[in-house]
Amino acid sequence: LFTRAWTFSRGSPGLDHLPPDDRPEIAFAGRSNVGKSSLINALVGQRTLARASNTPGRTQELNFFTDPNADLYLVDMPGYGFAEAPKDKVAAWNKTLRSFLAGRRTLLRVFVLVDARHGLKPVDDEIMALLDGAAVSYQVLLTKADKISRTDLERVTANTTKSLAKHPAAYPRVLATSSETGMGFEDLRAVVAKLIDA
Ligand code: GTP
Ligand code: MG
C-alpha cells in the first residue's frame, strides 16, 4: 500500500472532471495551509507527489492520486477558510469541496486536518456538520505537532476529542501528526490499511 508508487492521476477544478467513482477514496480536507498536501506526501513517503507550499491556497483542484498496488484514490483538496487567492476562486473551491464531500458515493473516509496550534475553528465545525448530515465517516488529524510542546499537544488533543462527541459521524480517535518528524504516521498507516481491508 505504501510502496512509493503513487502517481498523480487527475485534477478536477470543479465536479465535472472527477474520475469515475469506481473505487474507494480517502480525502484530506482542512483549512488552507494546515498541511494536507504535506501529510499525503509523508503518508506515501514521496516528498513531491502533492505540491505543498507556504502560501495558503496552493492546492486549487481536487487532486486524485493512485497506486497500481492499491485499489484506492487519495484525494488532496483545496483548503477551506482563508486562502491567498481571489475571492471568487475561493468561493468556487468551497462550493466544489462541499458538494464533493457530501455527495461522493465512494468516499470511504475523510481526514479532517486541524493545525495543532489552533485546534478546531468554527469553519471546521461547519465542515464536520456537513459530513454528519451526509453520513460520511471522518477522522480528525492534528497537524504540525512538532510546533508545540507536549503539554499543549495533550491539551489540544483532549479538547478536540471532547468536541467530537457532538458529531455523530466522527471517528472518536484524534491522531496527532507531524509531517516533519513522522510523528503519528505509523498509526495513520495502520488506520488506512484497516479501512482498505474492511
Ligand atoms: P493548501 O493547499 O494551500 O490548502 O495548503 P495545505 O493544507 O496543502 O498545506 P501544505 O501541505 O502546502 O503545507 C503548508 C505549509 O506548512 C508548508 O510550508 C509546509 O512545509 C508546512 N507544514 C506542513 N506540515 C507540517 C508539519 O507537520 N510540521 C511543520 N513544521 N510544518 C509543516
Ligand atoms: Mg495543498
TrEMBL record:
Gene Ontology MF terms: GTP binding; metal ion binding
Function: Necessary for normal cell division and for the maintenance of normal septation.
Residue intervals of the EngB-type G domain: 22-198
Pfam family, one: MMR_HSR1
Naturally occurring in which organism (per UniProt): Hyphomicrobium denitrificans (strain ATCC 51888 / DSM 1869 / NCIMB 11706 / TK 0415)
Family: Belongs to the TRAFAC class TrmE-Era-EngA-EngB-Septin-like GTPase superfamily. EngB GTPase family.
GO biological process: division septum assembly
Protein name: Probable GTP-binding protein EngB
Cofactor dependence: Mg(2+)
GO cellular component: cytosol
Cross-referenced SUPFAM superfamilies: P-loop containing nucleoside triphosphate hydrolases
CDD domains listed in its UniProt record: YihA_EngB (cd01876)
InterPro entries: G_ENGB_dom (IPR030393), GTP-bd (IPR006073), GTP-bd_ribosome_bio_YsxC (IPR019987), P-loop_NTPase (IPR027417)
Keywords: Cell cycle, Cell division, GTP-binding, Magnesium, Metal-binding, Nucleotide-binding, Septation
